[in-house]
Design goal:
By secondary structure, the protein is mainly α. The chain is 52% helix and 10% strand. The chain contains four helices and four strands; from the N terminus they run H-H-E-H-E-E-H-E. A hairpin with a 2-residue loop joins strand 2 and strand 3.
């Protein structure tokens, strides 16, 4: 397993490059939006969160969390992006698939 560490400067430069950032976000959205409805459902985002293993690792070392703890963390994260609370989906915010 590889671990990638990005410093703040790399992230700021990437976000500051509007074209590269927009292309990257568009490609990620299209890949996540498996039903092509222009919105990301909780289940579509959950697959990506599970692949990223955001909460299960700390610098590549497995951390133990119960399935209920993980579900709670993922749901909480999704809720932050679900601005209109429309059946647990967050919209594309202008990203066209």
């Amino acid at each position: 397993m590889s671990v990638e560490v990005l410093d703040g400067n790399t992230i700021v430069n990437f976000v500051g490059d509007e074209e590269a950032f927009t292309v990257s976000v568009h490609e990620l959205f299209v890949n996540l939006n498996s039903d092509h409805d222009g919105q990301l459902s909780y289940s579509e985002m959950l697959k990506e969160l599970q692949n990223l293993r955001v909460f299960e690792t700390h610098f590549g070392i497995d951390q133990s969390m119960s399935p209920s703890e993980l579900a709670s963390e993922y749901e909480s994260l999704f809720t932050k992006f679900d601005h209109d609370s429309n059946d647990r989906e967050c919209g594309s915010r202008g990203v066209q698939g």
